[in-house]
Amino acid sequence: MSVLTKSIIGLLCVTTLAGTYFSYTEHQNNRQWEQQQQHNTQYWSHMQLIYLRDFDYALAESLAASTISDRQAALQSAIENANFILQSVRIGSVTMNFQSWSYESFITEGSRYLAYPASEKEISLNPDQLEQIQRLRTFARTALPYLDQMRKKAVDSSISDIKQISTEMEEALSQLDSVSTYGNKAFNEFLYNQNPYIPPKPGTVFAGETTYTATELAAKAKIFMGEAWNKGAGKQIVHISGGSSPQFGEVLDFKLSDTDGKSTNSYIATLSKSGHVLQVRRKSSISEKGDVEQTIDLKQVVAVTDTWMARWSDERLTLVAKEINDTSIYLTYIPVREQVSIPQMKVVWRFDRRTGTLKSFDASNYYSHYNKTFPVHPRLTAEQASAKLGPKVTPSGKPKLEIHNSQLVYAFPVTGIEGVSHVYVNARTGAGEGINYNL
């Protein structure tokens, strides 16, 4: 036998052995995975069995209760067990890929409904309440045998066999009458009374301020828009629409048009009745003759924006963010009061990067917090606040005072935890006020 032949035979043997070993390893891994799935299923079905039995027991107890307080306690127990079941169902659907829509739906609707009879103050439940509780008991007593089968089969059967039982349970449950609340006036009134709608007071932001007529507001809009409104012969500012905001009260929109009412400019300015410019937006469907491509840098855009800002408000805001993408330039301004930044009161400008023209202006966030008083005087030093940081983070720079969720905080730039760029520490109490988290 030649050396070449021996080499080929040896190589084939090695390849065969390697393939056999790989197949064996793969088989072992698959077997371990299936055993783990069986273990998970056994535990899951066992816990479901316990919770569902307790759920049905509590429902039965509520029907047998001789006092209102005993009935309420039993129904509250049923609700708690329903919530345990839901938590476990959702885990099972993710980890074991069990699809149990009917099962989950019964429990979800049951948990939602049972708060209604649990609030009943009469000595006896009404017929509808009794019927819905009986439907939930029928559901539970239908599902229990299937869960018991799944628990037992998980010891020595395949996952596919267990999923078949789950499918059969779903089919049986889908044939049952679910909890029905459609058209149930008493139940709907109960839900409403739990969370009644309280309409906000209109215009609370600008309450008590002097209001102006549409003509006076048009004049204010004209001053603010400046050169953006090309006011040639035959052009006029018109009020095109109005509306009401829970925060801002009545607001009016203004645009430029000719004497026939035809729009001659794409900008629409929105003002409150008290004369504050809330927004400027541009309708792209109307072309602007003055739009020409030109080279414009960030410094020029900032200079233009500063001119607008001086006309917009007496408060001088600070430019804190600049963003440039393929089509637009964004500038964000916020108030800084006594060296405390207030980022939620932001004013955002957007410009066309190609032409340098304004695309939009939005001061709604600024005015949403317009009449709020923010704390600006810390009680702790930055050093004292840094002592409140957790052991997993390390400060990477000097902290800044700012308003975060209406609280005065030190915003510490940190390292140490992936995705966490800042940790907020209350500058008055030292309590943690959350983190700045990025994916």
Structural write-up:
The chain is of the alpha+beta class. It contains 10 helices and 15 strands. It has an 8-stranded antiparallel β-sheet with strand order 1-2-3-4-10-9-6-5.
- Lateral strand order in the biggest sheet: 1-2-3-4-10-9-6-5
Number of helices: 10
Helix percent reads 40-55%
Mean pLDDT over the residues: 83
The main pleated sheet reads as:
8 strands, antiparallel
**Proportion of residues in β-strands:** 15-25%
Q: What are the low-pLDDT stretches, counting only 5+ consecutive residues below 50?
A: none
| SSE run | HHHHHHHEEEEHEEEEEEHHEEEEE
What would you call the structural class? Answer: alpha+beta
Distance between the termini: 64 Å
Could you say which overall geometry the principal axes of the C-alpha atoms support?
Answer: elongated
Radius of gyration: 34 Å
